[in-house]
UniProtKB/TrEMBL annotation:
It is found in: Cytoplasm. Residues 5-318 form the FAD-binding domain. Belongs to the aromatic-ring hydroxylase family. TetX subfamily. It holds the Pfam family FAD_binding_3. InterPro entries: FAD-bd (IPR002938), FAD/NAD-bd_sf (IPR036188), TetX_monooxygenase (IPR043683). This is Flavin-dependent monooxygenase. Gene3D superfamilies: FAD/NAD(P)-binding domain. Keywords: Cytoplasm, FAD, Flavoprotein, Monooxygenase, NADP, Nucleotide-binding, Oxidoreductase. The keyword Transmembrane helix does not apply. HAMAP family: TetX_monooxygenase. FAD binds at residues 47, 104, 290.
Length: 370
C-alpha cells in the first residue's frame, strides 16, 4: 500500500518535495496556511545555483522552463562604498548560467504546476508516532505515515523533533521597494545596474536587487538590538524613513535615495538556527529547508530547501522498505550539507555587516569569478 505523505508549507522547499514526488508518481498532500497562491506579496528575487536549486529543478523536470523565465543578467553585481564610488562591477558573460535570478512568484508558479495544494490550512503542531497526527487551528486532526515540516523559520512541526528555536543574529534588515525604476528612477537604475548593488559601511549596508519588470527591492541592514524600533511606528513611513536615513548619515545622496524613495518599510530581523542543528530521528516526522536549518539570507536558503525537498522525495519514492530508515539516512546527508552552508553564511554575515568594510569587499572578491 502507498504511504500517506504530507508536507506542511508551500514554500520553495515544500513545493519542490511535492513536485518531485508527483513526478515520480507518488501522491502527496501539501498543507499551506496562506489562503491561496496570491494571498500575500511573493517577495523579491532568488538566485538559484547550478549544483543546488537548479539541480533540484532538474530533478523536478523543470530546468528548461526555469531557463526560459530566469534572468542570467541578474547575476550582475556592483559593490560601492558609502561615498558612492563603484569598487567592483561584475557583469556576467551572456551564457553564464551559474546563478540566474528568478522572482519568487515565478518560481512558485513553476513549482505549483499540477500540484493540488490545500490552501488555508494552518497547522498548529504534529504528534509523532506510527501514524503522525497533524493538528490544525480549527481543531481537526489528520494522520499520515510521514509528515515533512517545510514550514519555514517559525515551524510548528519542528517542536515534534527538536527543542531548537531561532536566535537573533544581532543584524536586522528593513526592506523597501521601488517600482518601474527604468522610467521613474533612472538615476537609481543606473546606480544598481542589471542585477544587484551592495554598499558596505561600518556595521551597516544597503543592498538593492532588481526583480523582473523594473522592480527593485532595497534592504537596509545594520547591527542593532532586536527592539531598536521601540517607540517608532514602522507603519509610519516618513518617521521610519527619517530614522533609517539617520543611520546612513554621511552616505552619498544617490545611495541614501535608495531608502529615501522607498514606498513602505518592512522589518525583517535576521534569525538563525544553530549551525549544526540535528535531532534524534523521530518516527513519521522530519524537517527540511528553513525549518531545519535557518541561516542568514546570503543566497543559500531557498537553494538548500529545494535540494532537500528533491532528494527526500527521490529517497521516499525509491524506497521498497522501511520509510523511517530511508528518512533517517536522508537526514544525515541533509544535516552535513546544511552545516557547511550554515557556517559559510554565518561567517559571511559577520563580514558583510561588520566593523571592517574591506572584509565585505574581500568576501565578494573570493566568491566572484574575475
Ligand atoms: C531578504 C531575503 C533574501 C533571500 N535571498 C535568497 C536567495 O537569493 N537565494 C536563496 O537561496 N535564499 C534566499 N533567501 C532565503 C530563502 O528565502 C529561504 O531560505 C527559503 O524561502 C526557505 O524555503 P522554505 O520552503 O524552507 O521556507 P519558506 O519559504 O519560509 O516557506 C514556508 C511555507 O510554509 C508556510 N507555513 C508556515 N507556517 C505554517 C503553518 N503553521 N501551517 C501551514 N503552513 C505554514 C508559509 O506560509 C510558507 O508558504 C532569502 C531570504 C531573505 C529574507
Amino acid at each position: 500500500m502507498r504511504q500517506r505523505i504530507a508536507v506542511v508549507g508551500a514554500g520553495p522547499g515544500g513545493l519542490t518535495f511535492a513536485r518531485v514526488l508527483h513526478r515520480l508518481g507518488h501522491p502527496v498532500v501539501v498543507l499551506e496556511r496562506d489562503r491561496g497562491p496570491d494571498a500575500r506579496p511573493p517577495g523579491g528575487t532568488l538566485d538559484l545555483h547550478e549544483g543546488l536549486g537548479q539541480l533540484a529543478l532538474d530533478k523536478a523536470g523543470l530546468l528548461a522552463r526555469f531557463r526560459a523565465v530566469s534572468r542570467p543578467e541578474g547575476q550582475a553585481l556592483r559593490i560601492l562604498d558609502p561615498a558612492g564610488t563603484v569598487l567592483r562591477d561584475w557583469r556576467p558573460h551572456p551564457d553564464e548560467r551559474a546563478n540566474p535570478e528568478i522572482d519568487r512568484g515565478q518560481l512558485r508558479d513553476l513549482l505549483l504546476g499540477p500540484l493540488d495544494v490545500r490552501w488555508g490550512q494552518q497547522v498548529t503542531g504534529v504528534t509523532p508516532g506510527d501514524g503522525a497526527a497533524v493538528r490544525f487551528a480549527d481543531g481537526r486532526q489528520e494522520t499520515f505515515d510521514l509528515v515533512v515540516g517545510a514550514d519555514g523559520a517559525w515551524s510548528r512541526v519542528r517542536p515534534a523533533v527538536s527543542p531548537a528555536t531561532p536566535r537573533y543574529t544581532g543584524v536586522t534588515a528593513v526592506e523597501t521597494s521601488l517600482d518601474d525604476v527604468d522610467a521613474h528612477h533612472r538615476d537609481l537604475a543606473g546606480l544598481i545596474g542589471d542585477g544587484a548593488a551592495g554598499v558596505y559601511g561600518v556595521n551597516r549596508a544597503i543592498v538593492a536587487q532588481r526583480t523582473s519588470g523594473g522592480h527593485v527591492k532595497v534592504y537596509a541592514q545594520f547591527r542593532a538590538p532586536l527592539d531598536w524600533h521601540a517607540g517608532l511606528d514602522l507603519t509610519d513611513v516618513e518617521a521610519t524613513r527619517r530614522v533609517l536615513l539617520a543611520l546612513f548619515d554621511g552616505w552619498a545622496q544617490p545611495v541614501r535615495d535608495l531608502l529615501g524613495r522607498g514606498a513602505a518599510f518592512v522589518h525583517r530581523p535576521l534569525h538563525v538556527l544553530p549551525v549544526s542543528h540535528t535531532w534524534a530521528h523521530v518516527q513519521g516526522v522530519t524537517l527540511l529547508g528553513d525549518a531545519a536549518h535557518l541561516m542568514p539570507p546570503l543566497g543559500a536558503g531557498a537553494n538548500l530547501a529545494m535540494l532537500d525537498g528533491a532528494e527526500l522525495a527521490e529517497s521516499v519514492a525509491a524506497d521498497g522498505g522501511d520509510l523511517d530508515t530511508v528518512v533517517r539516512a536522508w537526514e544525515e546527508r541533509m544535516w552535513a550539507r546544511a552545516a557547511r552552508w550554515a557556517a559559510i553564511t554565518a561567517a559571511g554575515l559577520d563580514r558583510l555587516v561588520g566593523p571592517d568594510p574591506a572584509a565585505a569587499l574581500a568576501l565578494f572578491d573570493e566568491v566572484q569569478p574575475s
